[in-house]
Amino acid sequence: MDHTRWLDDDEQQTWRSFLTAHRLLFERVERELQQTSRMPHAYYEILVRLSEAPDRTLRMSRLADTSLSSRSRLSHAVARLEQAGWVERSPCEDDRRGQWAHLTDAGMAALEAAAPGHVETVRQVLFDALTPAQTAALREISDVLVGHLTDGPVWPAADDSACPQAEADAAATAAAAAAATGA
After folding, report:
1. How far is Cα of residue 140 from the mean position of the Cα atoms in its chain?
2. Where do the H-state alpha helices sit in 38-163?
3. Distance in angstroms (rounded) separating the CA atoms of residues 123 and 117
4. Which of 43, 50, 133, 180 can bridge 103 by disulfide, Cβ–Cβ 3.0-4.6 Å?
5. What is the CATH number of the domain that holds 128?
C-alpha cells in the first residue's frame, strides 16, 4: 500500500524554485563574506548573536541551539574564533558542564568591519528584488516554517539558561561600571 504524498506539478515547481533561490542566495552571501572578511557565514552569525546578547555573552549550549548548529560543530567554530582573538570561553561557575562564549573587543571590531559589505550583499540579492508586499509575505512564510520546524524561537538569542553565578557577576560588574561613571 503506497502512502507517499507525491508533490503535484505546482508544488514540485515551488520546491525547485525555493531550493534554487536558497542555494543561489546563500552562495553569494557566503562568497562575499569569505572574500571581504575572510570568514564563513557561520562565524559571522556567531559574532552577530554574541553582539546582540547582554554583555556580548551567551551560554555555549544556547548559542548552539539558536544557531541551529550541533554543539560539537559550534565548539569547533568557537575554537577557531578564539584563535582569532574574537571570542573567549569561560566556565559557568555553577554548572561544571556549562561554558560561556563572550565576544571580545577584537571580535566586535571584526564584526563591525564585515557588516557593511554583508548587509549590502543581503540587500542586493534579496530585498532589492522584492516589493514591500513580497518582503512581508516572505517574512510571514519564513516565520511559519520556523515555527513548524523548531521547538522555540531561534532569534534573538537572549540567554534564558543563564547560570546564577554569572548573572550575579554581570550584575556586580554593571553596578561597578555605573558607580564609576556616576550613572
Report:
1. 19
2. 41-52, 60-66, 71-83, 105-125, 132-149
3. 10
4. 50
5. 1.10.10.10
Q: What is the pLDDT of residues 35-84, one digit of tens each?
A: 999 999 999 999 999 999 999 999 999 999 888 888 999 999 999 999 99
**Domain count within the chain:** 1
Look-up of cell digits 569569505? 34
Residue 7, domain member (yes or no): no
Calculate Rg over the CA atoms of the chain.
20
Give the model's pLDDT for residue 155.
65
Q: Kindly state the cell numbers that stand for 110.
A: 571584526
* Beta-bridge mates of residue 90: 100
Buried b (16+ CB within 10 A) or exposed e, 32-50: bbeeebebeeebbbbbbbb
> Is the overall model pTM greater than 0.90, yes or no?
no
Neighbours of 153 (CB within 10 A): 13
For the sheet with 95-103, list strands across it: 57-59, 95-103, 87-92
Look up the domain containing 125 and give its range: 15-181
**What pLDDT, on the 0 to 100 scale, is given for residue 153?**
64
